[in-house]
Structure formats: C-alpha cells, structure tokens
Design a protein that fits this description.
4 strands, Nitroreductase, globular, oxidoreductase, 6 helices, Diguanylate cyclase, NADH Oxidase, Nitroreductase-like
C-alpha cells in the first residue's frame, strides 16, 4: 500500500466484472483490518464486518440481494468475496459508521490491486425474516442493520476513466 493516498482516491473505480481467482488471505485480512480503523460516531465501533468466501453463503446472499431487486442476476458481479457491513441499529450513526468502514476497505483494496464495487440492499435483506435467519445461523445479533456491501476480487477488465467533476461541486464561503 505504497500508493500516494490522493492518487488512490482519484484512481479508484467501481469494478463490475471479476476474475474467478480467489483473493489471498493476507490481502483479504489487510482490507478487513482497514475497515476496523474507520471513524465511528463517539468511537462506538457500531459496525460488524462479515467476509463471505464460502460459496454456499456467497450464493445465498447474492440470491437474497437479487430477490430484493426483483431479478435473478448476481448483484456482486461474480466477485469471489462479498464483504457485508452491518451495524448496531441502536447507534444513531450506524449508517455513517458503516459507510466509513466500506470506504476504507474500498481504498485499501485498490491499494492492493484489487477491485471493488459498493452494493446496496443489505438493509432490506437483514431487515427481512430470511436475513434475520442468516444472522441467527451466523450467531450474530438480530439488531444488526444492513448498511452496504462490497464485491471484492481481481478486476476482469481495465477500469474506465473517471467522469469529469461537476461544476460547483465545491463552494467556498
């Protein structure tokens, strides 16, 4: 992770096609650890990070996400790893906390040559009875609320160029 930080931010792109090769455990561990250093409201560390590499659960979470969308495509674009970020729903900053965790992991993954894309619908999944059943199966509290997920793996194609930044994105007062 020797890349210049601002360069990382400017060059990270969402990846929507992945190679099937597994992510080395050392790289996955580094990405996950980066998530644990995200800022959280009051330092409460409300998020829980769930790394899914087991094909059974990878398929199940993809099915549940696609069900929310009303289709049967893979919302995680064939990535070998899906990282869910859930958080304690009683924390008033659970969405913000989880969002910071997701961004940290996306930047760390990019620094390691991995691709990611932020995927939504985890809130609907884990607010549902099917999602609650998964939480029970994983021995996690049912009070966890979905914030988002990232698909993680090696990109199957080159990333595109960033869109031009909009005018008036920044206002100085």
């Amino acid at each position: 992770m020797e890349n210049n930080f601002l360069s990382l931010i400017k060059t990270r792109r969402s990846v929507r096609a992945y190679k099937p090769q597994p992510v080395p455990s050392e790289a996955l561990d580094a990405v996950l650890e980066a998530g644990t250093y995200a800022p959280t409201g009051g330092g409460r560390q409300s998020p829980t990070i769930i790394a899914i590499t087991d094909p059974k659960y990878r398929q199940e979470i993809a099915r549940l996400n696609a069900e929310v969308m009303g289709n049967n495509t893979d919302p995680y674009y064939g990535a070998p790893v899906v990282i869910l970020v859930l958080a304690d729903g009683s924390a008033n900053t659970f969405v913000e906390d989880g969002s910071c965790v997701l961004e940290n992991m996306m930047l760390a993954a990019h620094a390691l040559g991995l691709g990611t894309v932020w995927v939504h619908r985890e809130r609907e999944i884990f607010d549902s009875e099917k999602g609650k059943a998964l939480l029970r199966e994983w021995k996690l509290p049912e009070t966890l609320r979905g914030v988002g997920a990232i698909a993680l793996g090696y990109p199957a194609q080159e990333a595109g160029q960033p869109a031009a930044r909009k005018q008036n994105y920044i206002v100085r007062i």
